[in-house]
Every structure is written in C-alpha cells, then in structure tokens.
C-alpha cells in the first residue's frame, strides 16, 4: 500500500492511472491453492486481463478460463498450460478458434445449438455441458435460480448428451458456474457438494463417463477487502467425493480484486446545493464498477504538497465529500459521500480492491477523454 500511495503521490499532474500489483494475485493464488488442493484452479481472466496480472495467474494456477476467442488468444500468448472456453452466444468463428487451439482446452457448451457449431468446426477435445440447475447460491450476481441466458435445463441433459454423441463429440462432464461475489463459505461448499452429487447422478442417467465437474467461479472479494473464508471452504470440501472426476474452480474476482488500484487526481472542488464535490481526472468510464452496481467504492485521499499555479489552491475542510468524474452525466459517481477532514485540488483519490471488473468492464471511449496510464508495481 505504501508503495502504491507513494507512486500515486509522485505521478505527474493530472494523475490518472490504473496501478496493478500482481504480487497480490500471487498471494491470493497461493492461499486458494492451499484451501482447494488437490483440485484444479483456472483463472477467469474476464476479471482482469492486465498482462502482468494475467502472467501472474498463468504462473500460479493451473490454467485460464476464457469467454471469447480474443481471450483464448491472449491466454495462449500468455503461456497458459490449459484453457476452458465458456460464455453465451458463441459464433462459427469461436468454434473454429476452439478447434484450432493448440493448448489443451475444454469447451463449455451453453446449448444444444452450440454442440452443432462445435462439431461442424471439427473440434475434437472435451466438452462440458453448462447446466443451469436452478439452485440459487447467495452472492452479488446469481446466474442460476431465476431464468438466465446461461446453460441448459437439467431435464435437457440426457438429450444434449445423446446429441453430442451422435455428432461425435466427447462429453466429459458439466459446467455449473452459478454465482459471483459469494462471501458465504458454507453456501459455496454446499454448491460444490451438491454440484458433485448431482453431476454423478446426471452423468449416470445420461450415459456420460464423468471426468470433469467445473463448479465455476464466484468466490467473493468485496470492495472493502472482505473475502470469502477460504479456510472454512477448505475444511468443508476436504476429502469430498468427486466420483473420480476432476473438480475445477474458475474464480476471477477473488484472485484479481486486490491487485488493482484506480487513481484519479482532484481537479476541481466545490459545493453545490450544500453538497461538497471533488471532480477528478477520470471517473466511471475508467472504473465502472461502482456505477454498474450502484455503490460507493471506498477510497483514501493521498495528499500532495505541490501546487504549481499562481492562484490560491482550492481547499475544503470537514465536509462530506462526493467523488465524481469528468463525464457529463450525474451517474458518474465513484463515491456518494463520506466525511473528510481536509482536501485540496491536486490531491489524489486512491481506490483499493478495484482490480476485478474495474477497467475491464469500463466504457472508456465515452467523450474521448484521455485513457488512464496502466502501471505495474511488483512487490507492493
Ligand atoms: C462462466 C464464468 N466463470 C467464471 C466467472 C468468474 O466469476 P468470479 O469473478 O465471480 O469468480 C464468471 C463471471 O462472470 C463466469 O461467467
């Protein structure tokens, strides 16, 4: 943190940057591997595809889960030892990319229609059927439970397996990704145990020789830095019966969340209708998560002494400060307001635990503002 804060202070004005600390991902990967051993861990690179963060994941976990052919290419280039290919609405070009991938790959098929495209492309590797079991798991995003566009219904599994066999495809098992942002270790352990037991039964009924059960990602890490209790999860799944299948986890958020920091300099300070505002060089077009989820992302203020202008430096004291960006929309809010003792134009606002789904989901083309710097700090 100190190293990141020092960097935040020293960047030239107007400072605006994503700062990545891949060492943090290595630490989280080590903790995850200890808790989940001997099972397989893939990194869901959609959470953060920064090259240094992806490289750290490639070094420390078993492979990479991809959700587009662009991600397949990036993961292969980063040297991933194995890959999974998930995601809805795949196209012929995606199937051809899967068929041409030289790295060991398991494709997660989202529908019966996807099986046709995959077979037509000449894909010969293993396939897992993504099933929406309708069993909700608590978290910030539920992919199962209510109707979602993901996977097939459980009662379609036998038909899908028969269809895949007729097409000459090798069905290895199931993909059961169900949730994102789950902070409840017991509920997650139940998801794993229940998913394994269901997979054994469903494979038996559908005539699938079960080799692969992927329970997805979803291990929680929230903006305050709170994480799912890995020790508890590890205890709950220790020695679990996988019916001889490989048990696979594919977390993104847990691994990447504390590896990314968003930094934005305060370029204006004012009070409007009794509300104090800090306007920053940057905003939700670089760090969309708070606006997308409708929450205030915790921040720290990094005070800067330097003031290069001849006019007096604007300052506020003892205010509830709302942090907004440079977009012409009232939704460009990074933090709706918290008490600060003192703040001045030129100070920097630093958002920790921002690495997962931060830059990756952002709409940075809007208004053609200059992009943030992308900086890697190792050892922080
Ligand atoms: C198929 C799939 N796997 C893994 C993940 C990663 O989820 P998380 O970042 O919550 O671990 C996602 C996220 O949406 C996903 O769609």
Structural overview:
The chain has eleven helices and 18 strands. It has 380 residues and is an alpha/beta fold. The protein folds into two domains: 2-18 and 258-376, Lyase, Ornithine Decarboxylase, Chain A, domain 1 (Beta Barrel), CATH 2.40.37; 22-257, TIM Barrel, CATH 3.20.20.10. Strands 1, 12, 13, 14, 15, 16, 17 and 18 form an eight-stranded mixed β-sheet that branches. Helix 2 (22-36) packs parallel to helix 3 (51-60). The longest helix is centred in the middle third of the chain and has 22 residues, at 185-206. The relative contact order is 0.17. The mean pLDDT is 96. Pyridoxal-5'-phosphate is lined by residues 44, 46-47, 65, 86, 177, 180-181, 216-219, 250-254. Residues 44, 46-47, 65, 86, 177, 180-181, 216-219, 250-254 line the site of pyridoxal-5'-phosphate (PLP).
Outline of this structure?
By secondary structure, this protein is of the alpha/beta class.
Measured as a percent range, the helix fraction is 25-40%
CATH fold-level topology of the largest domain: TIM Barrel
CATH class of the largest domain, named Alpha Beta
Whole-number total of structural domains: 2
Global geometry: elongated
Mean pLDDT: 96
State the CATH architecture of the largest domain.
Answer: Alpha-Beta Barrel
> Care to count the β-strands?
18
Give the CATH superfamily of the largest domain.
Answer: Alanine racemase
Characterize the biggest β-sheet: 8 strands, mixed
Secondary-structure element order, as H and E? HEHEHEHEHEHEEHEEHEHEHEEHEEEEE
List the uncertain runs.
none
The bound ligands are:
pyridoxal-5'-phosphate
Counting DSSP H or I runs of 4 or more residues, the number of helices is 11
């Amino acid at each position: 943190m100190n190293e990141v804060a020092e960097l935040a202070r020293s960047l030239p004005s107007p400072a605006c940057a994503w700062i990545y600390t891949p060492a943090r991902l290595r630490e989280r990967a080590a903790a995850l591997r200890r808790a989940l051993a001997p099972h397989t861990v893939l990194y869901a690179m959609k959470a953060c595809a920064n090259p240094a963060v992806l490289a750290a994941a490639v070094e420390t976990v078993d492979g990479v889960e991809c959700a587009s052919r662009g991600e397949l290419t990036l993961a292969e280039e980063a040297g991933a030892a194995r890959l999974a290919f998930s995601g809805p609405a795949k196209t012929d070009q995606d199937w051809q990319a899967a068929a041409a991938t030289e790295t060991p790959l398991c494709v997660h098929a989202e529908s019966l229609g996807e099986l046709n495209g995959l077979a037509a492309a000449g894909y010969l590797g293993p396939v897992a059927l993504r099933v929406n079991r309708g069993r909700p798991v608590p978290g910030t995003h539920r992919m199962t439970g209510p109707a979602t566009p993901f996977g097939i219904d459980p009662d379609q599994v036998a038909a899908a397996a028969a269809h895949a066999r007729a097409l000459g495809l090798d069905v290895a098992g199931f993909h059961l990704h169900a949730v994102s942002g789950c902070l409840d270790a017991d509920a997650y352990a139940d998801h794993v145990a229940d998913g394994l037991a269901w997979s054994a039964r469903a494979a038996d009924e559908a005539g699938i020789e079960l080799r692969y059960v992927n329970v997805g990602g979803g291990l929680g890490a929230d903006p305050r830095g709170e994480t799912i209790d890995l020790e508890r999860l590890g205890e709950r799944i220790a020695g679990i019966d996988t019916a001889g299948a490989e048990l696979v986890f594919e977390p993104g958020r847990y691994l990447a969340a504390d590896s990314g920091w968003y930094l934005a300099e305060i370029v204006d300070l004012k009070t409007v209708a009794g509300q104090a505002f800090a306007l920053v060089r940057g905003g939700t077009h670089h760090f969309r998560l708070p606006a997308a989820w409708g929450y205030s992302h915790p921040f720290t203020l990094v005070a800067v002494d330097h003031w290069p202008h001849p006019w007096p430096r604007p300052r506020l004291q003892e205010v509830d400060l709302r942090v907004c960006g440079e977009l012409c929309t009232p939704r460009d809010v990074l933090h709706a307001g918290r008490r600060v003792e003192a703040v001045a134009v030129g100070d920097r606002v630093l958002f920790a635990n921002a690495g997962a789904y931060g830059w990756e989901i952002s709409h940075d083309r809007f208004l053609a503002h200059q992009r943030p710097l992308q900086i890697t700090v190792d050892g922080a």
